[in-house]
Amino acid sequence: MKKYLFLVFAMVIMASCLWAQEKKEEVEKIDVLVFSKTSGFRHESISNGVKCMWELGLKNGWNVTATEDASFFNDDLLTRYDVVVWLNTTMDVLNDTQQEAFMRFYRGGKGYVGIHAAADTEYEWPWYGEMLGGAWFKGHPPTQEATLVIEDTNHPSMVVFDEKDIKRWTVIDEWYAHKANPRPHVHVLMSLDESTITDDGKNPEKNLMGGDAPMAWYNQFDGGRSFYTNRGHTPEAFDDEVLREHFRGGIEWAAGKIK
């Protein structure tokens, strides 16, 4: 009997070791660099956004590094990562050498994730704009509740909407209008129903898209993978579990972890 119990105990220990090794290997699969440098408007939500990324990393087995130091954008450091999350970056955040390093990183099959003000970034860098589908920031109405239309749930960032049977998502955020509609160049995942905007800031030409307003999309461009979502203006947005799952799927897809 003792011999039998010892054998069972040994098997449990062995199984636990194998499980731990599998978990360790899973944790090592994805390395995320979160970049939140600003040279223009600075969102108060950045600190909560970084916290959100740390917590997603702990929950999903990512290695997360957060920085506002643009010197990370060199070949030696970038090669350690699978994806760079541009978290509410604004204006000119990289010099020419750093831009070249990021393009090499991305073209090597790596990923980009842009959150909210990442579209208000690097206006003088044509390649960055092309990666965004031309959707640089143009304007926005006042922060308010409005409704997003779920267009496609067949992308990892959108699985949560399918699971929760969300077809229209009414939330508070700051809704960007873009200089160009990215739809011809990217795969749109959700868009803003502009009829639900109650205050256009008395400037609809600047603050609205005129009926077709993509808010999240992905793009397989120039050898890499890019994912952008407009959500993330308010600190509270980063506490939303649905939005966190949206981020998670987008990040893991851009990192090449899931298809």
Overview of the molecule:
With 259 residues, the protein is of the alpha/beta class. It has a single domain (30-254), classed as Rossmann fold (3-Layer(aba) Sandwich). The protein is built from 8 helices and 11 strands. It has a 9-stranded mixed sheet with strand order 2-1-3-4-11-10-9-6-7. Strands 5-8 form a two-stranded antiparallel sheet. A hairpin with a 2-residue loop joins strand 10 (213-221) and strand 11 (224-229). It starts with a helix and ends in a 5-residue tail after the last helix.
Write the layout of secondary structure elements.
Elements: H1 2-27, E1 30-35, H2 46-60, E2 62-67, H3 75-78, E3 83-87, H4 96-107, E4 111-115, H5 126-131, E5 137-139, E6 144-150, H6 159-163, E7 168-173, E8 177-178, E9 187-193, H7 204-207, E10 213-221, E11 224-229, H8 241-254
Parallel strand pairs: 1-2, 1-3, 3-4, 4-11
Antiparallel strand pairs: 5-8, 6-7, 6-9, 9-10, 10-11
